[in-house]
Amino acid sequence: MKHFISVTDATQDEFQQLLKLTEELKYKRKNKIPFKPMDGKTLGMIFTKSSTRTRVSFEVGTVELGGYPLFLSSADIQLGRGETIYDTANVLSRFVDGIMIRTYAHQDVLDLAEYGQIPIINGLTDYMHPCQAMADLFTVYEHKGKLEGLKMSYIGDGNNVTHSLLHACAMAGMDMAVATPVGYECASEIVDEAKEIAKKTGSKITITNDPIEAISGSDAVYTDTWVSMGQEAEKAERIKIFKPYQIDKDLFSHAKEDAIFMHCLPAYRGLEVTEDVIDSPSSVIFDEAENRLHAQKAIMTMLMGD
Ligand code: CP
Ligand code: NVA
């Protein structure tokens, strides 16, 4: 694995190794066992979009691994004033040992990887959010003790988070059912990739517009905001269209009785999910947030560690 831009950058073996390492690193942190594979290494962190979890977890994670995190807001670096990705990739490769980037166009991240000479980690694009998916699957594993054979459902917008979850569930051998409104489905090539992986792992991928069909019998129920970063102008229209996809107590009751509720956060209570679900004992949202730290430390260790 040279980069982590998509969950599928990991082979099946590497994917399993990442989950295992995530567990190990969580254990080490809890028991104050030092582990510094990034000693003397610097992670450049480029952000052209806002972030709470991604920024803090990468920054803290890099320090915990013995490295130095360098926050680079696009408002401050020349990339934000039109310097090319080509020049940015080549220049940063002379200074830092790896780059985490959060931005709009997925192609920019692929270009950074092509032109630079260091590992690139995708901290979210309009198309994918692979670090989130790794933390999420690890969270399911912690709560259910396994992944293979379980069912996740995702109700809402077929977006970046959904795409990476489709990849990750297929790789983990988990069934995944996605319900979106008509016109807001996942990208067809991502669904095809997930189905291709699923053939090998035995998982089942279901794409529908019916939230009850998707949620029925699930072990984990996932949703995300209806209005992703960059879609603010569509907010009013989206709120109307997505209303039937709100996860409330009634819809949630179609999942298994011991189902967990998941959300990458930030969440908008009263829109994609009601308070009585997201703030209920079934909700594991803060475990997911914490697990970003452990999962990303595993990713950095594999890509940048000694
Ligand atoms: N889930 C997630 O990526 O959160 P942030 O936008 O706060 O980084
Ligand atoms: N789909 C959301 C995820 C935020 C972490 C967005 O792209 O804004």
Note poorly predicted spans: none
Bound molecules: phosphoric acid mono(formamide)ester, norvaline
- Tell me the total number of β-strands: 9
Distance between the termini: 15 Å
Shape: globular
- Tally of structural domains: 2
CATH architecture of the largest domain: 3-Layer(aba) Sandwich
Rounded radius of gyration (Å): 19 Å
- Proportion of helical residues: 40-55%
Number of DSSP helical runs: 12
CATH class of the largest domain, named: Alpha Beta
Series of H and E elements: HEHEHEHEHEHEHEHEHHEHH
The strand line-up of the biggest sheet is 7-6-5-8-9
What is the secondary structure topology, with strand pairs?
Layout: H1 12-30, E1 42-47, H2 53-64, E2 68-73, H3 85-95, E3 98-102, H4 106-115, E4 120-122, H5 130-144, E5 151-155, H6 160-172, E6 175-179, H7 188-201, E7 205-208, H8 211-215, E8 220-223, H9 235-242, H10 249-252, E9 260-263, H11 275-278, H12 285-304
Parallel strand pairs: 1-2, 1-3, 3-4, 5-6, 5-8, 6-7, 8-9
Helix pairs in contact: 1-5, 1-12, 2-12, 3-4, 5-6, 5-12, 6-7
The site of phosphoric acid mono(formamide)ester has 8 residues, from helix 2.
Provide structural commentary:
By secondary structure, this protein is an alpha/beta fold. The chain folds into 2 domains: 136 residues, Rossmann fold; 157 residues, Rossmann fold. The protein is 44% helix and 14% strand. The protein contains 12 helices and 9 strands. Helix 1 packs across helix 12, helix 2 crosses helix 12 and helix 5 packs across helix 12. The radius of gyration is 19 Å and the shape is globular. The protein starts with 11 loop residues before the first helix and ends with a helix. The mean pLDDT is 98. The site of phosphoric acid mono(formamide)ester has 8 residues, from helix 2.
